[in-house]
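Lab notebook: predicted structure, single chain.

Context: the supervisor wants predicted structures on file for every construct in the current expression panel, including those that have not yet been purified. This is the next one on the list. No modifications to the sequence; it matches the entry in the shared construct table.
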Amino acid sequence: PIVIGRCFTYTTLVNPSIRYDCEDIWRHFEEAVVHQSSCNVTEEHYYEMFNAMPQIWPCDRFLFWSKTRTLMHSFAAVFRHFWTLEDTLVGYMFNDLIWCGQEEDSDFDFNSCPEWSTCGTHPVFSLWKQASQNFAEMACGNITVLLNGSIANAFSRKSMFGSVELDGLNPQRVNYVNIKVMTNLTLRILQCIQDLTQPDCRHMET
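Prediction complete. Output recorded below exactly as produced.
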């Protein structure tokens, strides 16, 4: 499966400093989701899987984001010392995937799963909620938060950052929170730093 493939890629190429048992992680993932209905998987179902993939990261490198997905990727590409949830093993393995189980079957359903925002115990929502909680609890030192200044509400308590990660930060571990409210213009500038040949960037060339 693609999840195991990503796990092997991560442990051999992306971050080979720590060894993980990808087959064991996959087995715990199966146990959490298979045989469960599409809206009956809680964070607790994933506890064994997360226990099989512990991870720590140096302080002062944690980057959180909310409604700034594209901007976050450009920002992280330019300022490479930052570390996001997508850079963790669980983030790398499950990024952009949708999955659910079937009560009457012993396999995954990848074709007819409901939107992961339709219920609070959707297997995708529960995994990201637990992953976000773990990431926030691990954060230490000076952390950075990217918010979208091009929308009406840059900060929302309903977002994963506002509802999970913010409350998960440990004030005894986090010294300073650097909040960056960025606009679409900032995004274009960051993209141009990466590639000045883009049409919108030609006027920036010297």
